[in-house]
Specification:
Radius of gyration of chain B: 24 Å
Distance between the termini of chain B: 49 Å
Number of helices of chain B: 9
Shape of chain A: rod-shaped
Distance between the termini of chain A: 169 Å
Number of helices of chain A: 2
Radius of gyration of chain A: 59 Å
Structural class of chain A: mainly alpha
Oligomer: heterodimer
Helix content of chain B: over 70%
Shape of chain B: globular
Largest interface: A-B, 31 and 52 residues
Structural class of chain B: mainly alpha
Chain lengths: 156, 285
């Protein structure tokens, strides 16, 4: 065991190794580690922010849903109201229309009855005149006995 | 030594494992004409392993979802970064990469101790290489190279932060102070002796702690290997031989598992002490 030139060579190797580590190894690795640390910190902050935004958005969504529900209830109420109104209106219109139809039918009936009576009367007059002329054996002048015939017809 | 209690050849075996692959035999404790090729070779290979792995990740590093390799590398980097931030309060672009390099490189040095102790030397012998020490941190040159580099940085940062005067003052004006300048002048040498011992103890303790732990660890592996060294099959199937074989396997396993802790711990201690020393150098008083 002795001290020899190996010492100097080893010192030289050691110095070179330290220099190489200092130049090519330590800075990039540490930079990458710091960068990752920064990224993780950013990621955590972003996550927290996102969570906060989510909470806020949930609150907003709740408000919007509540408003929408209220609005929907309002609309339904309004619609029901309007439907009732329409039904009432329709009922009124229908009643009026029915009454009108009934009245028109009544009128028509009355008119038809009158007409029928008129034609019947005329026919009866004709038959009466025919019968009378047969009885009398001669022509009965309808014109001459018009007032008689009319009286007869009125009696029927 | 314990080795002498074992069968003949154990001493030779251990001494053989203690020899480096050098260009020539050294004369004396310090001989700068000698080079340990094995230490240089393995530390450069391990440096390339460290650098290659980290560089591969650093080139394709992403701040998105990391790959499993990147995850592993980032775990190491953030572990070292955490240690540096905890201890070192100045701003320096050097300290953290330095700490990472020290931790990984020393860990890889020490990890070579877990490779079966005879495997690589046996392969090398096949290639005609007689001696091979595979654990660079069992070479004082390797551990001192690191601790002296750290020591140089300590001096550099001390002078940079406090100036030459401040640095000298730190070595001479503590721990004893006096109002009277004459008394202070007498205290300066005392302070200097005390402080310089503390100061010089840092690189020495750094290097010797690492070296000592790994040297001892390797020695245990060698002693366990020597239990059945050079024994024939007749010995191994005898009662005593079978017993030593079982003991060797069980103790080797136990020591390997324990050693996993030691090698990480030693790398960690070297790194933390480096950070502590440099942060002390960097501080104002």
């Amino acid at each position: 065991m002795n001290i020899n030139l190996t010492l100097i060579i080893q010192m030289f190797v050691f110095a070179t190794l330290i220099w190489g580590t200092m130049k090519w190894i330590w800075p990039p690795i540490l930079a990458a580690m710091d960068e990752r640390q920064r990224k993780i910190a950013q990621g955590l902050a972003a996550g927290e922010k996102g969570e906060q935004a989510l909470t806020e958005a949930r609150g907003q969504a709740d408000t919007i849903i509540r408003e929408a529900r209220e609005r929907a209830t309002q609309i339904i109420d309004h619609a029901q109201h309007r439907a009732n109104e329409l039904v009432e209106e329709a009922k009124g219109t229908a009643t009026a229309e029915g009454a009108r139809l009934v009245a028109a039918a009544h009128e028509q009936i009355a008119l038809d009855a009158t007409r029928a009576r008129e034609s019947l009367r005329r026919e009866v007059a004709g038959i009466a005149v025919g019968a009378a002329s047969k009885l009398l054996g001669r022509e009965v002048n309808a014109a001459t006995h018009a007032d008689l015939l009319d009286k007869l017809a009125a009696q029927i | 030594m314990a080795a002498e209690e074992h069968a003949p050849g154990a001493t030779e075996y251990i001494l053989h494992h203690q020899s480096f692959l050098s260009n020539k035999a050294a004369h004396g404790i310090v001989d700068f004409s000698v080079v340990n090729y094995d230490t240089v070779f393995f530390s450069v290979v391990l440096a390339l392993v460290f650098f290659g792995l980290f560089w591969m990740v650093a080139r394709t590093v992403t701040s998105g979802v990391p790959s499993k390799t990147q995850n592993f590398i980032e775990t190491l980097v953030s572990f070292v970064d955490g240690q540096v931030r905890e201890t070192f309060h100045g701003t320096s672009r050097l300290i953290a990469p330095l700490a990472l390099t020290i931790f990984c490189w020393i860990f890889l040095f020490n990890f070579m101790d877990l490779v079966p102790v005879d495997l690589l030397p046996w392969l090398a012998r096949g290639g005609g290489i007689e001696h091979l020490k595979v654990v660079p941190s069992t070479d004082l040159n390797a551990t001192f190279a690191m601790s002296l580099s750290v020591f140089a940085l300590i001096i550099f940062y001390s002078i940079k932060m406090k100036g030459v005067g401040g640095f000298i003052g730190e070595l001479t004006l503590n721990p004893f102070r006096a109002k009277n300048w004459a008394v202070q002048a007498l205290l300066v040498p005392v302070n200097f002796i005390l402080e310089s011992v503390t100061f010089l103890a840092r690189p020495v303790s750094l290097a010797l702690r690492l070296y000592g732990n790994l040297y001892a660890g390797e020695m245990i592996f060698l002693l366990l290997a020597a239990l059945t060294l050079g024994k024939g099959l007749d010995f191994l199937i005898s009662f005593g031989g079978a017993l030593s074989l079982v003991a060797q396997v069980i103790l080797g396993l136990a020591w390997s598992i324990f050693h996993i802790l030691v090698i990480v711990l030693q790398a960690f201690i070297f790194m933390v002490l480096t950070i502590v020393y440099l942060s002390m150098a960097n501080e104002h008083h």
